[in-house]
Amino acid sequence: MKCNYIGDAWVGSSNASRNLNPSDLNDVVGEYAAADATQAADAISAAYGAFSGWSLSTPQQRFDALDFVGSELLARKAELGDLLAREEGKILPEAIAEVARAGQIFKFFAGEALRIQGERLASVRSGVDVEITREPVGVIAIITPWNFPIAIPAWKIAPALAYGNCVVFKPAEPVPGSAWALAEILSRSGLPAGVFNLVMGRGSEVGQALLNDRRVAAVSFTGSAATGMRVAQACAARMARFQLEMGGKNPLVILDDADLKVAVDIAVQGSFFSTGQRCTASSRIIVTDAIHDRFVKATVTAMARLRVGDARAAGTDIGPVADAGQLEQDLTYIDVAQREGATVAFGGTLLHREAPGLYLQPTLLTNATNAMRSSREEIFGPVASVIRVRDYDQALAVANDTDFGLTAGICTTSLKHAMHFKRNAQAGMVMVNVPTAGVDYHVPFGGRKGSSFGPREQGRHAQEFYTVVKTAYTSA
Asked: Which residue from 48, 152, 435, 445 has the highest number of Cβ atoms inside 10 Å of its Cβ?
């Protein structure tokens, strides 16, 4: 049994969870200790005790630890990518690329540890100097989802440590293997005892303990909107910082002047790769009249060529759904969409392979409207709706008619429409002739409306959440 990491020790538990391979439900990836509220409190105590020392650590100490982690992730990307694909269901090339991205993130923030800047300003008062600096926040609880089990923890843990904070990390229950592997590397990185801690377990017990403890100064959360609201309420009640990423219902607009081949490729990649289990996935494809029928026909043809199968098998394009609960949710939404009047143009059925797995054929819904539940609520699976519109103006209005605002895309050869869309799309990230899913690690990530709350993640903007500003006045 793989254990939790608290202080500088690997700590077992009387409870354990079995991690199953969604490509082959007979394959047990491993057994992982399930922490309880007491162990969560122990991890907080360890982090709280370590903060005074780590907050004053040198940039070189932080660089060395983070660079070590980044280097090992890059060196072991094939091995760890295989583990990720096995436990989460992401196809092997995507899984390896995710591990590499995590390594790049740690490398980036290793450099940022050397570049923490301040300001020195002249005071309006004679003989007084003003200095503005950034300092670490304290103990950070990091709560992550299952769909990017190494990359998302990396882009939270790395900046937290780079800016001098201590971490208690609670990963999603379906993916303890990737979390444990990352924690094991961190345990050998030279970090002082207590600076980083891993507590695997149920959100209702471990997660709630992290939310309620006043020693936790801030919470960074990625997950569902419903859980995000509970995180916000718990943190607001005790005036703790919180940062929320809560998904999307992302539009991809296809205009009449779009290059059809490019548009189809972008739609298929953005909607169905990673089994559609990305908060940035293109789940609403908004298509203008003149290109609509040709686009649907070409997209169905492209989808028919996709190979759905074991995530680690050569030639697989789409892996299984991550777990049984998510698969049930996907099927329910497909059924609801049909009862509301949508048509399944392709897919929507369970697939059977040599091993028992959670295989769902990627699904394209046509005759959809923006009022349908399948167009309003995040499905988080390989399901996309095509919504027909008259022209660009209606397409923009439909794109913005959502409670979410993470990312928005457009396929067009018109510079006029591209520029207008970039300015007027109500989203934190806008893509022109590139898929809505797929972002760089060194630039801000985040949305608006119901998708995100708080400062942006990734890149230099991460310092807004993981540091506090101090203004000091000195009389000469």
From this structure: 152
**Whole domain around residue 218: which residue ranges?**
4-246+442-475
**What is the SS3 assignment for 457?**
strand
Q: Which residues pair with 318 in a beta bridge?
A: 308
CATH code, domain with 11: 3.40.605.10
Q: What is the pLDDT of residues 96-139, one digit of tens each?
A: 999 999 999 999 999 999 999 999 999 999 999 999 999 999 99
Q: What total of structural domains would you count in the chain?
A: 2
CA separation for the pair 442, 159 (Å, rounded): 12
- Report the half-sphere exposure of 360 (CA within 13 A, side-chain side): 31
Residue 347 structure tokens: 């897919």
Q: Are 395 and 288 in contact (CB under 8 A)?
A: yes
To the query of whether residue 31 is one of the catalytic residues in this protein, the response is: no
Q: Which residues pair with 359 in a beta bridge?
A: 351
Q: Catalytic annotation on 135?
A: no
**Is residue 263 located within the same domain as residue 160?**
no
**Which residues of 278-360 form beta strands (DSSP E)?**
282-288, 343-346, 350-351, 359-360
Q: Say how far residue 302 (Cα) sits from the centre of its chain.
A: 27
CATH number for the domain that contains residue 363: 3.40.309.10
In the set 88, 98, 245, 378, the catalytic residue is 245
336 plus 407 within the same structural domain: yes
Collapsed DSSP state (helix, strand, coil) of residue 135: strand
From the list 3, 166, 235, 279, the catalytic residue is: 279
Residue 100 shares a structural domain with residue 130: yes
Kindly state whether residues 231 and 202 are assigned to the same domain.
yes
User: Do 34 and 72 lie in a common domain?
Assistant: yes
Mapping DSSP to helix (H, G, I), strand (E, B) and coil, where does residue 47 land? helix
Quote the pTM value. 0.97
Q: What are phi and psi of 422, to 5 degrees?
A: -60, -35
Q: Which amino acid is present at 296?
A: V
Residue 476 has pLDDT above 90, yes or no: no
Q: Are residues 256 and 310 in the same domain?
A: yes
